[in-house]
Task: structure prediction
Amino acid sequence: MINLVWLVPFLPLLGFLVNGLGRRFLSKSLVGFVGSSTVLAAFVVSLMIFFQVKADGFTAQVVNLFDFISVGSLHIPFAFQVDQLSALFLLIITGVGTLIHIYSTSYMHDESNESFARYFAYLNLFVFSMLILVLGANYVMMFIGWEGVGLCSYLLIGFWFKNTSYNNAAKKAFIMNRIGDLGFLLGILFMIMQFGTVTFPEVFSKAAPLGMNSPVLGAIAMLLFVGAMGKSAQIPLYTWLPDAMAGPTPVSALIHAATMVTAGIYMIARSNVIYTLAPCIQTVVAIIGLATAVFAASIALKQNDIKKVLAYSTVSQLGYMFLALGVGAYGAAVFHVMTHAFFKALLFLGSGSVIHAMGGEQDIRKMGGLKKYMPTTNWTFLIGCIAIAGIPGFSGFFSKDEILAHAFGVNISYYVIGLIGALMTAFYMFRLYYITFCGQFRGTHEQEHHLHESPAAMTVPLIVLAILSVVGGYVGMPEVFGTKNFLAEYLAPIFAPSAPFAVTHHLSHSTEWLLMGLSSVLVIVMILLARQKFVNYQDTGAENTGLAKVLENKWYIDELYDAVIVKPLYELSRFFRDTVEKAGIDRLVNGVGRGVKWGSQQLRLVQTGNVGFYIFAMVISMIVLFVIGFLL
Amino acid sequence: MPVQYYIFLSIALFCIGVMGVLMRRNAIIIFMCIELMLNAVNLLLVAFSKMWADAGKVDAGSAQLFVFFIMVVAAAEVAVGLAIITMVYRNTHSVDINILNRLKN
Amino acid sequence: MLTVLLILIPFIAGLIAFGLKGSGPKVLAVISSLATVATAIGAWCRLGTAPDSLSFTANWIPQLGSQFRVGLDGMGMMLCLLTAIAFLLVFIAIYNRNYESSNSFYGLLLLSQAGLTGVFTAYDALQFYIFWELALIPVYFLCSLWGGDKRIAVTFKFFVYTFLGSLLMLVGIIYLYTQNPDHSFSWESFTNLHLGADQQNWLFWLFFVAFAIKMPVFPFHTWQPDTYEQSPTPVTMILSGIMVKMGLFGVIRWLVPVLPEGVHMWADVAIVLSIIGIIYASCIAMVQSDLKRLIAYSSIAHIGLMSAAIFSHTEQGMQGVLLQMFNHGINIIGLWIIVEIIQQRFNIKNMDELGGIAQKAPRMAIFLVIISLANIGLPLTNGFVGEFLMFSGLFQYNHWFMAVAGLGIILAAVYTLNMIQKVMFGNANALTETTTDLQPAEVLALSLVVAIILILGVYPKPILDLVSNTTAVVLKF
Result:
């Protein structure tokens, strides 16, 4: 079975080719079928692989396809690695991917035939790239998928290419990702120079002897982390993600919530040996993650676009995952990736259902009271909110709690700040819920008339994801509850190489109970607060002032980047174009030509035509030559 | 007679020729001055030929061969040159070289 | 003999083309280029089994010790293949166009093909120099007869500029010849000269400037945007796809082996100039609204990276350069084909006036996107492997150089995406409203380009293996 792993990325690729080449001939239902079924088939294969990997005594296997790059002593094979980590990600990607493909067949149904096929082709291409990313057996393969998902994200954000602002958002996403990619690339090159290989096990086995705090590993870790910042939208490279909401909503669910943005977490979890050996970089990771978590949560408090709230929430949750990586809780980070994939995909799809019903409206101030029109969407969305807020019993609670407990073990201030972020999360999610689904409907009559529950193709994925959001947490229940932590046990072989270097902080059970109780109570308080404030929300149209205004404008970070980086860069470029190039180098070049011409003009005047003068010049020259001849 | 006498005479003749060429405007005079220079050189050649022959270094008359070359060339030159001057005079009714500056620019 | 055929086929076809009328030259050009491609592929097969059968020597000017010596190594083979494919692509892409006095147009193009192939196969310095000029002269006429409005001034500048470089190189070759006890211009005897460091010191610049002008490397590049802008697009394809490779080829074949110490001494300077060129040209490309100039500057940036990687003198860098020479040639010709189509349709080059073509001509948009992405080195397109290896080589030479050069890939993304957006996306305007999708000949040419892009992107091994012997030879010096 493991040898058939190439089928997993190949099937979506096939779907991409069929849909891409046949976009003019295939009917919508056929396109939808090809797109969804290929991913579903990939999911089935992944599931079989997963069960094989899960069996006891399984060791990582590498499937070599062919030699990709082979120069001198450097060999980079086109190879897939199947182990616990990649098998888990395969399941998440193909599983959530299948649901979102099915959802899309209904959501995108209003598109023209050709663009419907184009959409599915891109989506399949994305799944292919993402699978390459997690299956790659070396960093270059990972980089291939890494840039591939960036490309698909670009194509899908700018899917409605007639709209200039969507195109700008797509461009921004691609370029910001490329900044990160440069860091990643530098990290890979550093590895090649230092270790002469990019294959995971070889790199890790050569890294371990360098010991703790070696500057080389520090540099590699930092560079890889820059790559992760770009892909996983961490400070300072996060601003593309909220803009990426310009894409169709299922895309936001799949790419910008469930899978692509977690690539950075995957990469660091994969490189756990390198990070464990570079504790100061780990601290950087933790601090950046924590800062992003709180910062993005604060912005989400005041957003009015349903997708923007979810986007900032995603940035914030990614911050938590990096916090987990930074404190060495790799398993917890992967756990949160998984639960987050469920509930965030659920929330995005739910918001898509709302937007679909509202005829494209995304401003929550113009919604309200949707509960009675869309019951299924309502309760699934509510489950998503509960899960992300961290109410005990739902998946988000377990994963977030595990992260916070680890953070507490490393540094209490991490815990406190993380908890503040979690409380904000609970508040803004329920603000979103109450404004959207409760109270009075605030839209136009036409919209009210149009309101309807979405078709089954959309609600079934919602229900499946809602169930997963509830039960998904039980695979990683902390041992405090007296059960085994299945996930931690399953992933243990991945993190085994770094275990000897890791510093473990063990919390006593009573402390863990205390922390859990504290966060649960505070979260419920926040939810009640939100309910009290927003359950009967009326749009007063009043302008925000003070801090609220700053938050609504996202701390003016976009404006800051524009003023500090973009504008000066363009100014510099214009300076190069107009001054250095035209007035400098080219004028110099032309000047040489003109100088020669001018000099010739002057010399021409010597030719007076006066024979006497010619002879005089001749005689003088001869005398001068004689004199020189004598003197020398 | 010491060879210096011939050298001085020859230099004097040559310089007269040069000055004539430089200062006169009449093409015919310039032409004659050129002949003067050529003859100055001829004189020098003959004188040196004699000197080296007396010293027994070369055969007598071997350098004087050049003189005949020069004379032949000079004769040819006179033929061409005078023909040009004649044509110039026919066209411009003057042999003043300063008006012959149409080649400039 | 196959090597001689590679030169002779286009040469004779070019001479014949002058005498043909109507669509004769066009057809002849396609046939000749097909034959050249077939010959090149045949030579490639022979290269593995009987490499000696590809070299050919004849007495040429025995008094000077100069011979007519052609031969093929991996790099020469790769470039001959590129030349053959590139001309085929050009001829297919412009098949539906009618040029005034097309017999001379096609004749000159074919002659320049012969000259280029001659450059890539020459193993005698004097012969190299002569082919170097021979390739230039037809291009001069092509530009000055079929070019844009400012063609006379621009072509004059181009010619004088490159000719100045050639003359410097000639001085260098003659000096080397005078120092050569064998009284020969042959590559082997030149590489065995072992001149003193002080001589290599200044000789380096004679050759480097010649090659740097051709590539072009900052600050010798100003002829290039003007020329690309004013030349007829088929000529621009040849200029940017193949002629700039002459400079890189010259460095690898002649400069590095003949003057190794000079190269070693000035490598830092050359790399710094190249890297300045990358950043500088990328920045200018970002603020260009003229499509042709944008691609011209992007080409300067890409060539800058190749030049820097050569001087890094590492195995990975060298392999990357050789691979990228091929890929860059294919990619940029693909880009020019699309530019040519756009210019033909709308008769403007200003991107701000375009837009919305993707709606009307989706296939053109797809081709442009794929080729542009290959041009910025997206993985699984051919641009990636070359760039990756070059970066790796440069990184091993100096981290900071690589880090600065790497900024180029970010800037490249900026200007390429800007270009795609302005040309293809947005709403169709009055100008682009009525456009139709590609014609069959254009689809054929672009499909060939895309096929090469994807095949070499996934499986670059054939080219890497082909050029590895050149790398091994060059790195010995």
Chains B and C do not touch (no CB pair under 8 Å). Residues 64-92 of chain B form the longest helix (29 residues).
